[in-house]
Amino acid sequence: MGNLEATRPFPDSEEMEISFGPQHPATHGVLRVMVRVDGEKIVDAKPIIGYLHRGTEKIFERETYNGTIPHTDRMDYTAAATNNQALVGAVERMMGVTVPPRAAYIRMILAELQRIASHTIWLGTHALDIGAQTPFFYTFQERETILDLYEEYCGARLTLNCMRVGGQPFDLPEGWTGRCGAFVDQLPARIAEWERLLTNNRIWKLRTIGVGVISAANAIEWGLTGPPLRGSGVKWDIRKVFPYDRYDEVDFEIPIGANGDTYDRYLVRMEEMRQSVRIIKQCLAKLPDGPVMAKVPKVIKPPKGEFYFSVEGPKGELGFYAVSDGSTNPYRLHVRPACFINLQALPELVRGHLIADMIAVIGTLDIVLGEIDR
Amino acid sequence: MGSPWIAFLVVPLVKIVVILLVVILMAAYLSYFERKILAYMQIRIGPNRVGPRGWLQPIADALKLFVKEDIIPSRAEKFVYIVAPALITAPALVVFSVIPFGADTTFFGLLKQPIPPYLTDINIGILFILGVSSVGVYGVILGGWASNNKFSLMGGLRSAAQLVSYEVPMGFSVIAVLLMAGSLSMVKIVEAQKQAGVWFIFPGIVAFFIYFVCGIAETNRNPFDLPEAESELVAGFHTEYSGMKWAFYFLAEYANMVVISSVATVLFLGGWLRPFPNVAALAFLDVIPPFIWFAAKVGFFLFCYIWFRGTFPRYRFDQLMALGWKVLLPVSLANLLVVALGVLLMGGAR
Amino acid sequence: MSLWGFLTSVLQIDLAQGLSVTGKFFFHRKATIQYPEVRPEPAGRFRGMFGFSEERCIVCHICAKACPIDIIHIADHFEEVEVDGKKKKKKVLDRYDIDVKRCMFCGLCEEACPTEPVAIWLTTKSYETAAYERNEQLYFDKERLQNWEGVKPYPGVVPPNMGQMPNDPTGASSAGPEEQKR
To answer: Is residue C60 part of a domain?
Structure first.
């Protein structure tokens, strides 16, 4: 046990500093957390990131605007359509272009399908970390259908490249709306099955109630967005507060939690999936005819200026701050990554908990290292 | 060489060989069934490439583990490191010597005289089982300590604490059955159930649940498998073990599962008896030989083990200990009181 | 705790509900596909391996400019040809190389191609291009882009020089079905 002394920060203290990751099955990517523990209780946790940094924002500066879109797919790779939507939305607003209504509805359908797909990954991996192995397979089975729908629409399953500045590259193929409608019709029954496995389960409740609590005031202070914010009781959703893409024409609700613990965030995300089903059904019913691409020049050259635009992604508020100098390549495209800012609250959430709870908290924040590190 | 030699030496030797072979094969194929059943619950097929429908998968795994490099950490305590897996496997196998697999049988007429299909029946059978299986805790602690890895040590200590704590309510629930049976011998417990005409699970339902839950905790299975879970920080006492030594830990875990299931069958489900053994109307069920009944019941318990693994999340360690000491122990004590009262009122043990 | 709450807690109804879900799925149809005996069919718009047609290519370089990672390398020269008695300059393709090991299959080159039907396309339904060596075997020049040497086409799909067209991978006149077979 000679190496135990080396990790003690002070000669007389009982504290130990453990490096958790970057290679670890439960860290959802290459995340390293330096955890300082006193016995079993966590005193402090410091996330160390950067293992997946690929220089995405620098790459943006040398691409044309439409060429940056495939790169955004690879940021939050579990929710590619959301990244696309945020980027093209920023550029369109800089150019003053409004997408045609059919394109806006198609974007909403793709984005809500992506929200469901991202939450299925979250549920599967979160349950797996806490020990339940089977929800992973059930949720990924539903995700397969969503990915098939994407494949029929744009040709890829994960790195979609499914939106362009000014509208959509393709119209919906034959029968797609029927297949999509059939999928969302049977999805609430699946969600109910997953809830039967977990929501009332006493072991699940023991592991998640009271774990990783953050108050509403603290959540706003730390800049959390998305389900971590709504789980603490703050009713804030970009789709309602700053509507984009015709979200003001569809009816849906924002689920919020009461206590700000892991169980509430779990319930918020499950309800969000059901609300997404509601939105998709309305969009499929109201889908207008018309062109899917606005009149934009072949080579996109926004006027000089800057614009910030954000969307409500499955992980939180994903924003792009676009600065253009009038040329075909962006001068600067800065990303406001939802997971990066949510991860900063990790020390606040795990202080005083046990190590096993830290795994639950990392799962409940739903982080994707691709977006954190870019 | 007269018949005393055959009775004293040859028959037990043959029985030992058969039981060992069957148990080891069963442990290996239990891993196969676990993978298949878990897979079926997870809407996928398990192993199906090695051999027809994957039946040779455990053989392939065993061969792979045989030829794997034998790694011993440089600063590990060498002797203890090598002996620790044996310390947990040996008790698991020894316990099988007193478990009764069936009534006296001629194996469908193969033998001239009926012989009991178990190795022996000592008059302190259940005490022997509880005592010997407790020796397995040494294998866990020493394995964790000898690895010279602070995470293994933590995992080993936790696992040992879990094993020791759950033995207490398990013991109390077993005593409840002993009160009803009036004997410590395994065969006599089964015969007491035959005399009573009902399996002991019916009067002892609480004891049965407590026993089974403690049994799952004793074998480090989900939902009590925190010490060996892969997604936790502490990777468990067998982190530093690879190859054949790891296979022994693995084998011991599965053999322990079979032990707990067999003991639960004998104590609560009537061993080799058919349901309602004294009801004449069900006599047509006697066409199924007793050891098939036994095997079916053990199989049901093993299926439950795997079913629980596929369904439940796992307990955190402090919650696990709280469950054992604060919930199961008082309930098992209360159950013991109630059963004792019941036996007294019904005129003594049968 | 109410009486019902106490009963459900003792009788472990919540755990039994979970067990009923996994028990039900035990008897469901399984989702496993036995690859490689059964190959799932990609959708019609699936972005797979490249197809190229040298005849249709007008050497405009728009695909190379549209590529976000600049993996299309084109070289050409002018040649004088006689057309209706007049001397005209025509662009002739020397080199059309795609560095497939770096490709992210985004499809921007296919979108940019102005010819009708397009000269570079990804809707080939073929995804089995794995090689044992990355630098030589995954660098496709214009001959290899058309004869598909080293590429395993999806069953029924023919290489571009045998008649494959964009949106018609089998080279027949009927388009491939859009739904995946399980």
So the answer is: yes
Q: Which residues contact C36 (CB under 8 A, 6 or more apart)?
A: none
Question: What's the pLDDT at B298?
Answer: 92
Question: Does the beta-carbon distance from A25 to B230 stay under 8 Å?
Answer: yes
Q: At what angle do helices B125-134 and B150-181 cross, to 10 degrees?
A: 170
Distance from C-alpha of B121 to C-alpha of B134, rounded to nearest angstrom: 20
- On whether any CB of chain C is under 8 Å from the CB of A138, the answer is yes
The answer, for B35 touching chain A at a CB cutoff of 8 Å, is no
Q: Does one domain contain both C130 and C87?
A: yes
β-strands A305-312, A41-48: how paired? unpaired
In a domain, C152, yes or no: yes
| A232-241, C3-12, C51-60: range with lowest mean pLDDT | C3-12
In A100-226, where does DSSP find H-type helix?
101-130, 134-154, 176-198, 202-208, 216-222
Indicate which CATH number applies to the domain containing A81: 1.10.645.10
Domain housing A139: 56-373
Q: H or E segment at A357? A: helix A355-365
| Contact state of A155 with C107 under an 8 Å Cβ cutoff | yes
Largest CA distance in chain C: 102
In this structure, are A36 and A151 located in the same domain? Answer: no
B73 prior amide bond cis, ω within 30: no
pLDDT of residue C180: 32
Kindly state whether residues C107 and C62 are assigned to the same domain.
yes
Contact B44 C26 (CB under 8 A): no
The SS3 of residue A112 is helix
Beta bridge partners of B105: B115
Among B37, B41, B205, most C C-beta atoms within 10 A, so best to mutate, is B41
Q: Which residues does chain A have within 8 Å of residue B311's beta carbon, measured at their own beta carbons?
A: 132, 134, 197
Band the pLDDT of C179: cuts 50, 70, 90: very low
Residue whose tokens read 């040590």 = B153
Structural domain harbouring C10 = 1-31
- Give ∠ CA B317-C17-A182 in degrees, rounded to 5: 120
Question: Number of structural domains, chain A?
Answer: 2
In chain C, the residue whose alpha carbon lies closest to the alpha carbon of A132 is C18
Q: What is the pTM of this model?
A: 0.88
Q: Are A357 and B316 in contact (CB under 8 A)?
A: yes
Q: Looking at the structure, do residues C125 and C79 belong to the same domain, yes or no?
A: yes
Angle at which helix B11-41 crosses helix B290-311, to 10 degrees, equals: 40
Counting as contact any 3 or more CB pairs under 8 A, the partners of A are B, C
Q: What is the ipTM of this complex?
A: 0.86
What are the chain C neighbours of A201 within 8 Å (beta carbons)?
14-15, 17-18
Give me the mean pLDDT over the B315-337 stretch: 90
> Contacts of residue B312 in chain C, CB cutoff 8 Å?
15, 18
Question: Is the same domain home to C80 and C147?
Answer: yes
B32 to chain A, closest Cα gap in Å: 17
